[in-house]
Amino acid sequence: MKILGRAWCFGDNISTDDIIPGRFFHLRGNIKELARHTFEDLRPDFSKSVRPGDIIVAGENFGIGSSREHAVHVLKVLGISAIIAKSFSRIFFRNAINIGIPAIVANTSGIDEGDKLEINLNKGTVFDITKNLKISFKPIPRFLIDILEAGGLIEYVKKYGPNLVRP
Amino acid sequence: MTLAEKLISQKLSKEVYAGDIVMVPVDWVIAQDGTAPLAIRQFRKLQVNEVFNDQRIIFFIDHAAPSPRRELSNEHILIRRFAKEFGIKIHDVGDGIIHQVFIERYATPGDIVVGADSHTCTAGALCTFAAGFGSTDIAVAMALGYTWLRVPETIEIIIDGLLPEGVYAKDLALAIISKLGPNGASYKALEFKGDVIKALSMDSRFTLTNMAVECGAKTALIEVDDICAEYLTARGRPVKERLKADPDASYESSIYMDASALEPLVAVPHSVHNVKPVTKVQGIEINQAFIGTCTNGRLEDLRVAASILKDKRIKEGVRLLVAPASREVYLNALEEGIIEVIVKAGGVVLPPGCGPCVGVHLGVLGNGEVCISTQNRNFRGRMGNPKSEVYLASPATVAASAIRGEIADPREVK
Predict the structure, then answer these.
(1) With CB atoms 3.0 to 4.6 Å apart as the test, which of A106, B86, B136, B169 could cross-link to B204 if both were Cys?
(2) Domains of chain B by range and CATH?
(3) Average pLDDT, whole number, for chain B?
(4) What is the ipTM metric for this complex?
């Protein structure tokens, strides 16, 4: 899987409350409407300026806090093609893969806002085209790539049946 | 083997160790009104006609209960209809918070629990392997009856000494989180042990396991002992087997703490690991004080608060909100006279449930307002307004602060 996109940079410890605040709880049944409030408190312009294919780049511990999967669905609806962070909160990482957004653990220190990135999931590389910088990462386990390629866990189960961890 | 390794190995009837990726059958699948509707929608996409076991899936309406908006009322209808269609048990408005009702009525040592809520780890104090997941994992678990897991490494946390006056399990939890940091236990299990843990009531133990996720932990575990067995027996779930970690279990790291050296602590805005002694923040004026949640809404918590509030009035202009964590807690608090003390002191009693913790209803903060709360998170905007501030503390510290109208040291409010 190859992904090409533009970087949006965030810091450490971005919570799912930062991604989609709890005060929009009543919109959870309408993901498109909910998505208009993505990152509203941190980056009020985000949902209007983000373009399909864009990539989220973050520091440590992205997606901490609430298990709300809506935090991934709003990014998906806005067309985010991948999330690269130094580390992820466990639940958010699973949610991202389950919804079909690659969550990549890599050293993001050299990437700046707006940089053009090319990600090769199978090889485990992020290439910062703007900076001519190559960043390697530990490839995602095969069965998680299978989930991503299927389009998420629901599609994966429909395609491969009930055996979640295939050799 | 650690407790986490033992629990998963026992369920699989084969030995597995930290780092192994396994498919594991689940004993319980639980979800609340913020996450169940999405799980239901994802379940529908699977196009299966039945759930794996209608007796082992439970829905709870606690986050927006009763509903403050028609959109949420409609989500509640969706949950109720699905529950009816598949014969699934539902705890509706007024029964209480998912984690509290689950430990009171369902969790049994040895169980594997997947919950669509990050604080599912609370049930680990009953020696269940309980972890939080997103709605899609829950949808798949509802259909298949199992999930995939990476067997976690374990950090053992050994707490010796004696809790000093005015210091409670919440202070201990904040001390541990400030030590580990927001991802110090990411993907790992915590195992709590030591003299202090052995002496803690179940209510206090649940406070510790509840907050494990605030340092990134997948789950948190405490061995079954007499106190735990008694708690379960009283609820008609006698313990059959007491799982113990092996003496030679391999821990990723060990943290030793002397509880005797602790003092009351407060997590200051806007992160849970931003912890300071109450003596450093006392005097900060508050508008609202909240006692409740899956962290500190249990009988013992309300009892401690009432002992401070008895025959006193809260500061004029301050709102004290109290939400019992469940109907059982509420009834017991009524019987003990705790509710009367709270109401006479000027407090407002909210229905059992999450109350204002999630920023949805029942105490949303205004611009520039400050709340001190017994909840587990103080992220910016958590209580419904990014222009407000939330401090986290024990029920004693919150009750003392309500009386003073400013953050106060519970040891000084007598």
Answers:
(1) B169
(2) 3-257 (3.30.499.10), 265-412 (3.30.499.10)
(3) 97
(4) 0.97
